Amino acid sequence: MKENNHNHLPEGQILRAVIDEQDLSGKEQQHLRECSACKRKVARIKDGLQAFGKKAGQAVPPLVRPVRLPSEKPARISHNAGWLPFFGAAATAGLLVFFYFMSMEAMPPSGLIPMQSQENLLEDESLMRQISEMVENPLSEEIYEISGENGVDFDEDFLQFVVPEIQDDFQSEIFIQGGIKRC
Asked: Is this prediction's pTM over 0.85?
């Protein structure tokens, strides 16, 4: 019996005994029944928890009124509630009729589509011709006169005179060699 007293339960086992003694193994339960030191530790922890519970109970403010769960009350019946679905259905039907007639007005009747006449074909052909002319010459004649672009192409000799090539120009050779040095 003295052997068991020297081997007391560890702190974790004592806490398990406080929570539920049935969690301990058979040997540990038997040791707890026989060892007075381990019994005192378990009793001290339980007493501390009970004292803590009492203090917590005293710190809670008293209830002014009893707590009641809300019960389901029937909704108030409004005198207009019965008419609401009817008005919604009537408004939907009215919108459907409105949009139906609006779409009928926008679409031409299929039976009244006239065949293209010869005049319409000629108008379309002249319009296409005007469009192709505008693509080729986007500006009118007056604007070409103002801008100076009259369609005259410069030949290669004229461009060579205005902008000479680098090899023929003595000033460009000086520029390439480092330019004119000034004092």
From this structure: no
